[in-house]
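Running co-folding for flavin-adenine dinucleotide.
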Amino acid sequence: MDNTDILIVGGGIAGICAAIEALSAGRRVALLDRDTPENFGGLARESFGGMFLVDTPEQRRQGFRDSPDLALADWLAFGSFDEQGGEDRWPRAWAETYVQRCRDDIGGWLRAGGIRYFPVPNWVERGLDTHGNSMPRFHMVWGTGHALAQNLIGRLQGHPQRQNLTLRFSHRVEALLTNEGRVTGVAGSHESDGSPFECEAGAVIVAAGGINGSIERVRRHWHSDWGQAPATLLNGSHRYADGRLHDAVAGLGGRLTHLDRMWNYAAGVHHPRPRKPDHGLSLVPPRSALWLNARGERIGPRPLVTGFDTRDLVTQICRQGGGHSWQLMNRRIALKELAVSGAEFNPSIRDRRLLAFLRDLLLGNRWLYDQMVGPCVDFVVADTLPELVERMNALNGDEAVDLAAVRGAVETYDAAIAHGTPFTDEQLQRIALLRQWKGDRIRTCKFQKILDPKAGPLIAVREFIVSRKSLGGIQTDLSSRVLDGTGMPIAGLYAAGEAAGFGGGGMHGLRALEGTFLGGCVLGGRIAGQDAAKNT
Ligand SMILES: Cc1cc2nc3c(=O)[nH]c(=O)nc-3n(C[C@H](O)[C@H](O)[C@H](O)COP(=O)(O)OP(=O)(O)OC[C@H]3O[C@@H](n4cnc5c(N)ncnc54)[C@H](O)[C@@H]3O)c2cc1C
């Protein structure tokens, strides 16, 4: 392969969407990926498949009238953008573009290609000290991100201009080639034998993912709000999201921004069957569990509850020190509320088995319980609190967890449930608030005591911070063109998806309203493909 019109680095959904658009514009396209063909689709194929969409039929049917203006107000508040201009100029412009275009150019475009969403959108990231989603906007793809990736791959492979597409796997791109200031191709080596290759192109689109697959880089860019990074950071990103292409872009004068903005998760556990070093899973943290620090003290004064501000959970846990936290619950809570983000541990949704999905929702997810309790090293189980604390300490190989602290926390919480409404405990107040939305009510216990003898055994989960998404990245303008230090586009060079901080080098700001990642890949990839096609 020596020459093509448009060369795309990365076969995640950003790259795939770029390829679809470039083919539709009649261009010859080469898509190169380091990974093997089974992993075509990148992180999206492992993802949950939640997409942030605005003013959709699903929202309307549930009685919500959303609008781009409302969504933008939520986005800008939650993102806590620094400045009007400077490095946040392009991120803000991308945020505006996203909310304006997402209904038709993300949700509608996917729907036209056969994607279906759950009828009830989830209400995530409602905000805590800063305002978040003022209504449900997280539209779950029926079939998870796996179906999304498969659908887009099908759309690419079945494209009417398929003969103009060259797909190459096990191709590691290492450098960008230039001629008189214009990017003219890439160079790299084959994963299998290290032999070199080069490819010329009229334009190159970098869609090689973020930096969060490299724990070394995550540590290097650790945000100052989080103090010192914990000794253990689990890896929940792509094994090849190592920032190599970010370096290549920076080497040409391309601007990288906001690399310390990341979307990491607070409830990471070790994958029972790891496929990479420190492979982490991100639990959807059960709301009815008590969140304790490494010493067994309940984290507070404001108790930690998911659904409001994911970044705040990470910040609070890092402040506690100790390197990890614990969530304490019982079997009944685990069966109803335990979930793992992603396609792998949601087979009934991934495989679109409606009856199995409804059974798990109504009767409890026994399959997931068995996958985690036992096989996952971070789960410990016991019938009594003293036994549980003994096992927590044995797991960690120290005596850090204090039985008296755990007992005090549990008894105070259970007493607050027994006291009833109005609840004196803020966690219970939050659960009451969440349960007002049917999408949450069905997945949240109705004020469940921890020491309820009928709900046992007791379970403690040791949780680490898990690295996931890069909110910062390669700065791009609204045409996905890579910008240099003076704000001028670098000729022939584009970036999209997580590589570009989902657009503009950080379109989320400091926090994400969730579901904007997959959506950002679709939108940014499509724009990059269209613009590159126009200019080659
Ligand atoms: C478990 C899980 C659940 C998630 N759930 C959601 C969700 O519900 N909603 C949401 O919005 N987001 C979710 N995400 C995030 C979302 O999946 C990713 O942010 C998104 O898929 C990134 O897509 P991308 O195309 O930018 O990059 P990637 O998917 O990372 O693809 C990049 C590709 O580039 C290749 N590559 C890297 N370096 C090179 C190189 N040097 N040369 C050649 N190829 C290279 C890689 O092999 C890879 O195939 C989730 C992620 C995970 C892991």
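Result summary
The mean pLDDT is 97.
The first strand starts at residue 3 and ends at 9.
Job closed.
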